[in-house]
Amino acid sequence: MGLISEAKLLSRGRDWRGRSRTPRSAEPWAPKHEPKEFPTAWARTPVTGIVRTAIQRGVLKPVAWSQTRVTVEGREYLDGLRGPAIFIANHSSHLDTPMILGSLPRRFTDRLAVGAAADYFFDARWRAFTTALVFNTFPVERYGSRRLRGLAGRLVDDAWSLLLFPEGTRSQDGWMNPFKVGAAALCISKGIPCVPISLRGTYGAMPRGRNWPRPGRPKVVIRYGRPMRAEAGEGVRDFSFRMMSEVTRLWNEEELGWYEALRASAAGQLSAPTGPKAIGAEETPAIEAAPATGTDIEAAAAGTDVVPAEPEDASRWRRIWESTRPLDDERPRPVWPGR
């Protein structure tokens, strides 16, 4: 390091190693300034909605469908659904949102807002503008900040349905992460249904680090479940666990078929799709209801996870290899059409 560079460091209150010469405990207190919120109300105006519909139906869906082989199942469960609802899904790829928006009937997508990480999609104005325009996103704080608390509830009050990913982030290796309980708390507090969705193949088609799907048109399966409502007296944690269990059942339908997955779920024999385990580890325990403790809404605000105890995971390369295995076209079919 030259003499001039060292002089600059010293003038900024740093030593020659770049460290502060003033202990943090001795620094004067200064109020913490929250970053300014990016406005998104403009994205929900009628004119912007027309532009967004043209982009989604005329550009986004044709491109996504041309790069993958998409199968959509269970959409008939949405026929009787009216009013705002919360759509939840497992999350492992940036393809997840375009796939869901492209598979939903237009009567839902015209009034659908998508929760997006405030620290990722709203950290730069150009990215915030693009995602708000194309996907009608609104910022969601992932790390406990109260700056945007209540925005999702206000959207529901305005008759907007929401698409949320309860895991809070994309999976690192294609397998499911623990569910946060915020989506369940919102369903209970607003008295609206939840629609579970399982996505298979999106991680293999476009995993983290890729900006375009892999060549070869990999298969993607989007599977909708029946709308769910919280039962009388059901707590937030219990309902969140039931939501995760239903996504798990839909996930397992790809290998087991609808009937066998339903039987296994009723018998408590389904395991959360959290990936292969280390050699010698016991099987992942079947999902069981977690007891509700404390004030459920407060737990939701704290971002509590809902996940069963598990044995040690297998090595990262094996987990990724398993999650990117191509989906089999000759899987078990439903016992009868329409299920």
Task: Characterise this structure.
Pfam families: Acyltransferase (PF01553). GO terms for molecular function: 1-acylglycerol-3-phosphate O-acyltransferase activity. This is 1-acyl-sn-glycerol-3-phosphate acyltransferase. InterPro entries: Plipid/glycerol_acylTrfase (IPR002123). Keywords: Acyltransferase, Transferase. The chain has about 350 residues and is of the alpha/beta class. The chain has a domain at about 40-250: Glycerol-3-phosphate (1)-acyltransferase. About 35% of the residues lie in helices and about 10% in strands. It contains 13 helices and nine strands. It has helices spanning about 5-10, 45-65, 95-105, 105-110, 120, 125-135, 150-155, 180-190, 200-205, 235-255, 260-265, 295-300, 315-325; strands at about 70-75, 85-90, 110-115, 135-140, 160-165, 180, 195-200, 220-225, 305. The protein has a seven-stranded mixed β-sheet, with helices on both faces. A two-stranded antiparallel sheet has the order 6-9. Helix 2 (about 45-65) crosses helix 3 (about 95-105), helix 8 packs across helix 10 (about 235-255) and helix 10 (about 235-255) packs antiparallel against helix 11. The longest helix has 22 residues, at about 45-65. It is globular and about 75 Å long.
